[in-house]
Amino acid sequence: MNLAPVEELTExxxxxxxAKILFASFEKNDPTISxxxxxxxxxxxxxxxxxxxxxxxxxxxxxxxxxxxHATAEGFSLIIATDAKNERIxxxxxxxxxxxxxxxxxxxxxxxxLNIWKDSGKYEDMACLKSIHTSDLVENIAIKSGLKLQxxxxxxxxxxxxxxxxxxxxxxxxxxxxxxxxxxxxxxxDFFQIVLEITQKxxxxxASNLTFFDYMMEIYKEFGFYKEKTITVDLNTDAQRSHxxxxxxxxxxxxxxxxxxxxxxxxTDYKKGVKFNILTDKVNSFAGSTENILKIESANNxxxxxxxxxxxxxxxxxxxGGFISKEKYVMRNKEMxxxxxxxxxxxxxxx
Length: 351
Known about the structure:
The protein has 351 residues and is an alpha+beta fold. Helix content is 34%, strand content 25%.
């Protein structure tokens, strides 16, 4: 009997397109990087300038440019900038394989992390703590997801201290916390564990041929596209200062005074610890502050927070737009910048 030849089975090796992650930090021996060595993660590190003589260096385009240039040249898909000492994180992402890197701001990263944590199922009954200056998008995600929400005046570097106070209110709940200075905390996670969760999400997205930019666009699709901007006006004269402060005082005394030009839903006075709902005439009290800060929320999905000092008036603006596509992201950003500028010009003119 002639037996047919046995076919030799060979296993075809398939190259897996894994995520290439570049970690950037101001310290060569950043403790977060040391922790990553024990995680088995494949990564590369680059040290940034600016941290040597600065106890609180800032992540911006200038400080991250060397990392962006290196990541672009070497084909990295994600840049994670970490400042473990101050618990601050920034990420730079690519829209797609062919595009350059986009640095996400603190508002966008807060929305991404909150969405990751609420969807993970690991943090039951989670509470969210945010600075009042952090995007209304974070507030919207928390409220629509049924999370406890605490919005506070949080000074730079004071997030963990504030989180400890809020933990007393929610003793049995894990708390995630975000400040506008890029500081991020989670009561159930060490700082390096937060970084590892970002890397894990990048790996999962990469396996589906997606990017963090795609993930952010999905968040916008579900909860609305928000644009945030901080504008600072120098107060060069006493008359200018009095003029802008009088606008705030008028809003406190007569919240409906803008009805014809800028219809409002609510006015929140953090100094007095009250929020006045203009639509229902209800007044809700909360723990007050010594800070002279006022937030107004309009009927057309725009909020403005006034935060004056002796020499400056700082406006924190958040505006919600409609659905936005990935292709029109840049154009819509510019349009919303123009809308925000018109609002600030209106307030500076005294309405």
